[in-house]
Every structure is written in C-alpha cells, then in structure tokens.
Amino acid sequence: MSDDESTSSASSGSSGSSASSASSASSASSDPPPKEEKRKDKGDSAPKSNKKAKKTKSSTPASAPPLEIAPPVESVDSQRARSSKSDSKIIVLLDQARLETVKNSRGFYEMINCDDHRDLCKKKLKKDYKDFRPDICHQEMLALIDSPLNKAGRLKVYIRTCRGVLIEVSPSIRVPRTYKRFSGLMVQLLQKMKIKSTTTSDTLLKVIKNPFSQHLPAGTRVYGMSCKGKLYSPRALAEEVVPADDDAKSKKNSPPVCFIIGAMAAGHVTTEDHPYIEKMISVSEYPLSGAAAISRILGGIEQHWGII
Fold it and tell me: Considering the entire predicted model, what is its pTM?
C-alpha cells in the first residue's frame, strides 16, 4: 500500500471515529436520564415536601390551652382549720323584711305577697301591694348562705321583719330553692317560733328577743348599706373596715364588723332605726338589688381573707 492510501485510510478512520463519538454523544444527550437520577430527584424533592408540610403544620394555630384555675392562696385543709379556730366573723342583718302571714279561705296561713294578695292589700290592709315582697328576703338569704364565707364558718345572719320580729339564722341551714317552699318555712317559723333540723338536733331558725344591739359583741362596728352612702369598691371596703386575717394581733384587738342591709322593696336603711350605725356605705354608683350588693360585699371580704 502506498503512502497516499495509508494517509487517506487513517484520515477516514479518524473521521469515522469522531463521527461515531459525536453521534453517540448526541444520542446520549437525547436519551432520558437514568432511573438512579430520577430516584435522586425524588429523594431530593421528598424532604422539600416534608419541609412544606412542617411549615403548614406550624403555620396552623395551635389549639387553645384550657382555662387555668386560680391557684389557692393556701391549702383547703389549712383554710378550714384556720376558719374553725378564728373568732372573727362578719355579721349581717337583713332589715325590714316583709314576712307577714294571713289566713286564707281554707283556714291555712300563708305568706302575703304582691302576686297572690293584691286585692287583700288594697281593700283590707289599705297598703300598697308592691311593698309586700318576701321574695327579696329569699334572694338575699340564698346569696348569704350559699357564699364561700358562710361555708368557711365566718358569717352570722339575722333577719328583722317590718313588724319587729328578730330571727336568728343558723349557718348550717339549707335555704329552700323555690319561693313556695321558702314561704311555707317562714310561715311555720312565725307560728312555732323555732325550726329544728329533721336529721340532727340543731335549731336552724328561731325567733329571739329584741333589740338587735344586745346580740352584737362588745365593740362591734356597724355599717349601713345605702345607695346614698360613701362609695367604696368591694376590695377597698374590705381592706378598710375588715381586719386582716393573717395578722394574729388584729384578730384579738380588732372589733367585729356588722352590715345592715335592707330587705324591703323600696327605701333604705336609716340611722333613725339603728342609731348605733357608724357610717352609711355603698358598693356601686348604681342602685343594686340586695342580693347583688351582698355578693359584692362578701366577694371583697373573701378576697381579703383568702377564702376561695
């Protein structure tokens, strides 16, 4: 073979190899990526989706936590032990309660009220039927006896009717929830002068001798409740007129406190009826019902003494 033929064959071989390599490169570029790369891509995309999911989870608002109960100032056992040992109590007198009875056509006594005895009040008694509201005394007794202050043994309740009958209420009494049963209980009390427990020998209600001042401990500070009295917030009233319960000296030296609250439909407590009243006070700038005023007063005292 001549030199020209060898060079031409070499050139043709080289050109053929380059063409084949180019064609193989082009075919490689046109072929789809291998499965391993797809797996890698999927593996790379998976954590991204997880991140997105985490973001969406974190972006969603968490469920609201349950309402927290106020931590007690002290344990319940220590509260009960301290309450049983303490002599300081709050005395409350429900004044001018309309508790009057009348004999009906069947010969039974019943409590006079503005709903059932309107004609009787107008024609026979010659009085305004709107004044006969024994349900006010019922509402106030529920607010007093059901209060945590009474359950802790730190409350003493008296009732004085518009006829001057003075009633002592036991702290262990369970006031009837309905007015009908309450009126029946009061009718029985005014007839028998005493109501005893059916399960124990305790006296729940009894009529005692007047005047009310002789049943107060010596040195008792008496305050009358009226919308015209000096305005206090419930907590400020407790801090000013009620002794601090955590001070042992104040328990011995400070006098007891008595609140006189009206149980009438109209009017308010006056110093003419109770000349021993030291000051007239109010717990709201708005006229309140007796039960609402009692709840505010006792609530402030309970906070002041740490009773929950």
Answer: 0.72
